[in-house]
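ERR on first pass: missing label on line 2. Operator R.T. fixed the label and resubmitted. Corrected input:
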Amino acid sequence: MSDNKQVVADIDRSLYDFKDVETEAEFYRMEEGLTEETVLKVSEEKNDPEWMRDFRLKCLKLYEEIKMPNWGPSIEGLDMDRISSYVRHKSDMKGKWEDVPEDIKNTFEKLGIPQAERESLAGVGAQYDSELVYHNVKDEVAAQGVIYTDLESALHGEYADMIKEHFMKLVPPTDHKFAALHGAVWSGGSFVYVPKGVKVDIPLQSYFRLNAAGAGQFEHTLIIVDEGADLHFIEGCSAPKYNVANLHAGCVELFVGKGARLRYSTIENWSKNMYNLNTKRAVVEEGGIMEWVSGSFGSHTSYLYPMTILKGNNSKMEFTGITFAGKGQNLDTGAKVVHIGEGTSSSISTKSISKDGGIGTYRSSVTIQKTAKKAKASVSCDSLMLDSISRADTIPAMDIRTNDADVGHEAKIGRISDDAIFYLMSRGISEEDARAMIVSGFANPVSKELPLEYAVEMNNLIKLEMSGH
Amino acid sequence: MSRDLNMKVNVLPVYTYNFLKVNDSTIDAEDINIDSLVGPEVKELPDGVSLRSGISFDEAGEIFRANKEKILFTTGVPGDPNGDTSFRDEEQAVRTGMGIDVDKLFIEAGAKADIYTVDEGKKVEKPVILRFDMENGKGMLASQVIHARKDSEVTVIMDYSSQDKEAAGFLGVSTRILAEEGARVNLVKTQLLGNQYIHFDDIGGACFENGAIRLITLELGALKAWNGCYINLVGKQSDFTSDTGYYCAGEDNLDINFVADHRGKKTNALMQFKGVLMGNAQKTLRFTIDFKNGSSGSVGDEQEDTLLLSEDVVNRTMPIILCQEEDVDGRHGATIGQLGEDVLFYMQTRGIDEEEAKRIMIKARLDSVARLIPDEELKQRVQYFIQNIA
Amino acid sequence: MSDQYLLQVKDLSVSIDNELPILNKINLDIKPGETHVLMGPNGAGKSTLGYTLMGNPHYNVTEGNIIFEGLDITEASADKRAKAGMFLSFQNPYEVPGISLSSFIRNAYHAQTGAPVKLLAFQKSLKAAMEILSMDESYADRDLNVGFSGGEKKKAEILQLLMLNPKFAILDETDSGLDVDAVRTVSKGIEEYQKKKDGALLIITHSTKILESLHVDYTHVLVKGNIVHTGDGSLVDEINANGFERFI
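pass 2 clean. output:
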């Protein structure tokens, strides 16, 4: 226990909440609101190829046409006229930490990113507001033919056709209002290509930091894992807290080839003024495996349901998620899966914790198409209510169109049992520690799926939330 | 009339993804054909039960409006897409599973309701039996209010059947229930209508302290059927237990929306659904346990067991749990699929082939609900019907 | 003369999901009326053999044949085997809510004989069989195995054995988890089956309690998927006294 105590004392919200002042001299900031003019300006800033500029304009039209969702948490507090869709530092992306502007470097140093890169990552991309400020991949990984770069460079380089072929094909801008918005003003993000048969032993990571107040971050992540290849990609997000709403409407498109495996881990810790309307989707070919590990701790309001399309026969998906909704948060999270291929299997396992008036909603859909003979799907969601001012909802759906499928579903909702607390207290543990232990235990199936540093970070976040700050 | 003549029914208590097309269901206006606005007469009214017939649908809701403070209060914030949506049907005297459009249909058509009132403290042993003999080409709206006064108990059986297995027609039923303090209402509905019938059955109920509603439903006939049930567990230790068995084959379509609204302390709800889908049948099941703030000590359980016996069936399930209270225990479980390999093997070791094993399992599933029917004659008729299904 | 055998198992090898074989070239000959005992430590593959003989699709026969009454049934489904006269008593019988024990047996009886079941005669013989097994009559109307205790489940299996009257029955760990009285009752039921002059038995067990009052013709010892020793009934007593040590 003494180790845990140490950690509780060590962490401090200021780790994420510190903010750097962005001066006019150093930062270029697009005016608030969204018009054809602003979209064209973003396009110009980014030196888009023509097709991309046209695509942005098409997306803007769609954005204006598509209605707000009639389900999910309220997003009334989000006023697009007060969001700047593009903010960047007036310097270019760097390949070395030393060259990154001092103020930005300080931010990432405080978040521990350069250290993590040295110690345990194959490559790192760091995005600050709308642009990537740093991108680097270890030599030995690059030597395997692995491409890890910012999406903008990729649009003009050797892989331009590959990008055009895949960009927003999995998440079309017609998907929902914020996918259209993303298509119109996307900026930053990463492109990863892992060639056939290449297994990347250590993870790649992208870290997203939204430092500007009243701004939007719309990064696009495109990952292609070719036949028989293997990759673990980690995504981290944070932002300081402001009194005005910030918006994150990123988009992640993942292509998992035949017999390939991709693990995508996220620890999301946006500040509590963030509207996190993120779209993530993967398509998996024959025998491929998609694994999601998703921790949602931050943001004011979240809509997040990573979707997997099990297209190839015998493809697999595993989703492990945890959501901790604290004071003032409305986190609507879950997963979606569509079984198309024969013998496909999916497993969704989630934990949700609601505390101090937070609203945690688990929402999911499992669709088994007629072609998906011998499909297997299992869903298990547990919710923990820590008081009676909070809310925990479970809204799953199943749509099954073949008899030759095996579908199981379990949901439980409840609280920490008094007996459990009494048992721990009878061994000399304080009530607060006992509760934290039980909540950590509840979250354990998720944290054990994370790389050690992230598991530690997640447990710290839980302790931070439990201690009521 | 300028409004949409189609009825929007079985609306989910909270909306979800639109692509699933499960947020509500529609009854086409052209499917609604009415030539009778009153239900059948009760054959024999047992002692302790009084009947007022021919009351307008609206007026029949009076007993609920008189207790509005108790029954209709809501907690939480209305308005949010994901907020407390029970305010949606506030115009109803008592919320029902299918919702306000059923009330509107009854009121606009001028349908009459029968009010059954059970004397205080009276445990009525003989059931009230309502027999709906639905001939080919008939169209009927029927409405009942069952009002069980303090500490009383009553069993009401509604038997919908057609002599002609191929009969077509329309039958819409609305049953509203009030179980006062310590009262218990057992409601049994068996649907053995002709296989071209259009049928809906809407239930809304409220239980006061220690009140209980016990529901047994079998949906075995008809082409298209909608079932809705919304029970307001407003009093402490009130209870709702329901068992539903269904069988859908051919082009059948069954659409269900059940809600247990826990508002009193230590309330209890158990909803079980067992069914079989064959042919091109489609089934949508929405069931919700809603633990409102203040429902501490409550327990809610929803279970589904669906056997899929054809590759062309469509099975949709939305098992929802909403929770605003810490000290509750809510659970959901579903098993959906074809006959399990292990049970098939067990049957085969006893010499039963796969087709016969399926027939046994269909019967077993439906019979486990049918045997709960408290009336011997009806039970045997339903069991006979089940024997001849597969 | 192979046709004098009821069951012949020839070089039978079995695996699950193409993993390493669980059973390795098993040979077994059983004549009508004989009682064979299959013993062996936990995990030896005893239940696998029972399941495979009865045709559980979970187990793949990679090599060898199963011959019943001169016919090769290696590929036959379980119901065909049951109709041919085979029976397996399960260690953990399946629970089937909604169908009563008596109506299940009636269904199975009808499926096997194809003849209509005479209700009165059936009920009479069911009652008699239940008496032998000291089963309360109420069990006949209870849902198959649902809420039965371990002992009641085993009795319900033996009840089916007596009612269906197969030519050959495999009893898989029928004595496990039973108290002394229940073992006595179950073995009384098995004795009753033995009385039929040509009913054969393969009793799978890792203990010897159930065998005390039964006549045993052959005892086979299965270790790690191989039959390492075959002896007569007296081997049971030896194993009872000394365990499996000398065979491992």
